[in-house]
Amino acid sequence: LGLGDPAAVVAGRTGVRLAFVAALQLLPARQRAVLTLRDVLAFRTAEVAVMLGTTPAAVDSALRRARARLAEAGPVADELTEPDEPVVRALLDDYVRAFTAADPDALVGLLRADAEMEMPPVPTWFTGRDAVVGFLATRVLHAEDWRMTPTRANDQPALVVHRRTPDGVDHPYGVQVLTLAGDRIARITAFRDPALVPAFASDIRSPT
């Protein structure tokens, strides 16, 4: 967190969660993407610049603006709680089963009614459980043979995503970071970037 920046406004598990949620609600898309990649997934500035097709100076500028905006706003997600670890694991397992089985009805039961989904840096945003599940059902679930492995991204629940081709080979696809509220998913942030997958190689088992 912060990676050498003493002005970092997020620290520790709860701080990351609150800052992450605040960012998604308050910041422009580019600032959300930069903050998530730097302060949640802990990538270096140069790496983020490559991922977003910009310069390190632009990344640093966006990060400073994002942190300043969060510092002004303060926590905005008081109802979010840190679920117990068994609850987190059960929710992740249920999500993996629903996603890989292409079962939108099962996903409905896992999301809050006001759940949101975004795919930074793509400026696509879905608000509300019906919109999120509708998008996944029509554009994502049946598009590939998905394999997902639970992990953590800077102590937040996350999933490493692979797609399995007809020859049985699993190809890195990206990472999903989940924001939880109690025993439901409040937000899905999906990074469609295979370059993120190797960062979790030592923390994950074979995809399921």
From TrEMBL:
Single GO MF descriptor: DNA-directed RNA polymerase activity
Residues annotated as domain RNA polymerase sigma factor 70 region 4 type: 18-70
Known EC number: 2.7.7.6
Repressor is among the record's keywords: no
Coiled coil: none
Keyword annotations: Nucleotidyltransferase, Sigma factor, Transcription, Transcription regulation, Transferase
The family this protein is said to belong to: Belongs to the sigma-70 factor family. ECF subfamily.
Name of the protein described by the UniProt record: RNA polymerase subunit sigma-70
Domain of life per record: Bacteria
GO biological process, one term: DNA-templated transcription initiation
Keyword Oxidoreductase applies: no
Domain SnoaL-like per the UniProt entry, residue ranges: 93-187
Cited Gene3D superfamilies: 3.10.450.50, Winged helix-like DNA-binding domain superfamily/Winged helix DNA-binding domain (1.10.10.10)
